[in-house]
Sequence to fold (755 residues):
Amino acid sequence: MSESMGVKTLIIDGQELSARAGQTILEVARENEINIPTLCHLEGLSNVGACRLCLVEIKGSNKLLPACVANIHEGMEVVTNSERLKKHRLVILELLFAERNHICAVCVSNGHCELQALAQELGLTHISLPYRNPALTVDASHERFTADHNRCILCMRCVRACAEIEGAHIWDVMGRGIDSIVITDLHDDWGSSACTRCGKCVQCCPTGALFDKSKIGSDHPKYPDFLPYLNLMREAR
Amino acid sequence: MSQGADRLREALEKAAGASDKNVLVRRTGCMGPCSSGPLVRVDPEEHLYHHVKADNADAIVASLGGPPVPELQCDLNDHFDRQVRVVLENAGYIDPEKIDDYIGRDGYKALLTALTEMTPNGVIHRITESGLRGRGGGGYPTGLKWGTVAKASGELKYVVCNGDEGDPGAFMDRSVMEGDPHRVIEGMAIAAYAVGASKGFIYVRAEYPVAVSRLTTAIREARRRGLLGNGICNTPFNFDVEIRLGAGAFVCGEETALLASVEGRRGTPRTRPPYPAVSGLFGKPTLLNNVETYANIAPIVRNGGKWFANMGSERSKGTKVFALTGKIANTGLVEVPMGIKLREIIEVIGGGVPGGHTFKAVQTGGPSGGCIPAEMLDLGVSYDALMAVGSIMGSGGMIVMDDTSCMVNVAKFFVEFCMTESCGKCIPCRAGTAQMFTLLTRICDGKGTMDDLDLLISLCETIKETSLCGLGMTAPNPVLSTIKYFRNEYIEHIVHKRCPAGVCNIEAPVAVSAEVLA
Fold:
């Protein structure tokens, strides 16, 4: 196949764009500075298409597609920001805020939280759904890090980072539905698990669910940008 | 097995042994009408006895060769006459643990025909011609799916059977696996030949131990006869089947979750594409069909695609097995041609609503189907017609409700099921079903407001459109359909704080009379 065969043209939000075959809608949109909100997606990790915030409309289909996993094809017309999508995104964010106990004022990630930033960006002003206020635990058994399940949005970035990048796979999911929870090993304390203390999961966590103990009460920005770089260097070897 | 049938069989065998008549007592799979069980049929006279107890055994054996036992005779002519049996053609005629019984009723003839007289493409063509659509609920054209897997590149391909029937009140697949297991194996073998696979898996839920043991026996028998294994029927075709047990998760009926579970991973769905037809089990092209779909294959290959396409409605061909449950006289399994009116299934075949109550609604398609009101009973049953009224065909559950059912409570019940069975992967289904349940509980408790109702509808729309898999996409169906067709019941609960059916336990509101206000 010649190189020109691998180039596709498509339209995103009215802009005519070219892209390489095999790219996802999200990759093409971001390369062209078109913003599509995401939470479970993180560059450097596999995609699971679970948060449903990156859903986009495709002309000619009534079905919404997750931009993080949907591949582009020649001539496709994508709409990333219709009224219908905006409404769904707000409801999904509302569902997240009402699901567990997200109290920004006392959160270590206040000001550096992806969930909070998205709520501000998308204009979520209030929660009309009833708060569930579940009774959840905090696992502070690890010498360096803490897992606060009250703030977890089950994006599974920690699970993927630990399994795919660190290769330790100590994080996984227990239970199902609304009772799902991320666990370390076979639901042991994080401190007594097979954790390698690398801290990748903490840097990947979009909220204050996983945090560095040394940062309690202080500014806790996270830097997941090392992931694509790490992958690049590994591939180069 | 159930209702003392085992004891009855022993008693019949004993009575037959003691008698000097030449009697063969035979166990069969389910005949259909559960509410009349246990059933005994006397051949060749075709006398059908219902509610038979072990004590009746002597009387039945004594009557053989003469007039039937009057007090046991049942009249289920209306029930049986309107049915067309394809999937259930052997139900009540064969012993599920005897391969000879199956072979005696044209069993494995279709496999032999396919292997010795047809090309794989010819088989696919015949299935396409029949118009068969997936019986698990999706209604995807079976021939098209087979063609896709056949065209997929790769040496190794798999054929998987979905026997993870999880809908409450549904037992179609169970009955087929328990009553006619060879039919499923034959269908899978033909499918494997058509798509070029040599390995198959049957995924059965562990809650069906009888189905598992009968399938195990059937696989062993088929291997022994050279109908599974290497060089089947002296042709170069190799195929074998293994059973995998599900551990009780409803979501594992979703195809990608099922494949994850077969692989030994957590049973959660993934986004499609790639579809299993291209990248399925262990990343290989995989054909995944439901039990009932495979059960239709042998008769189609035997009788031709046109024969099948002549039954049913325009876009839904053939027959469909339904599990009739709830407030209906003849509960049990029925098999009817597609396009038949709901009214005929419920009032004639099902015998109507018993106890002098009036029919209120029928819910089709399991927990995520919609409730169809009495005004729509003349609807012909097909994939598209059910979809158009806000329900689904699903796998074929049919739950009948009468005037003692509160529709808000019914919606709450099904939403609770979907909530506890959600895998928790995507947000709309995980948190959305829980919020639907909270709002419905409020309304049922008489604490709901009209704002809650609007919120509920808005939430339903988002869950329906944004969920990752079919579980979430269809979970709002019972809520939306009851709000659409029984809105007055919601209003009664919210505004007047009363439950018209008297099901919900609403505390009497504090009476505020005009005098107090004045």
The first strand of chain B starts at residue 40 and ends at 42. Chain B touches chain A at residues 249, 251, 266, 270-271, 273, 419-435, 438-439, 442, 451, 455, 458-459, 462, 465-468 (CB under 8 Å). The CA atoms of residues 182 and 429 of chain B lie 37 Å apart.
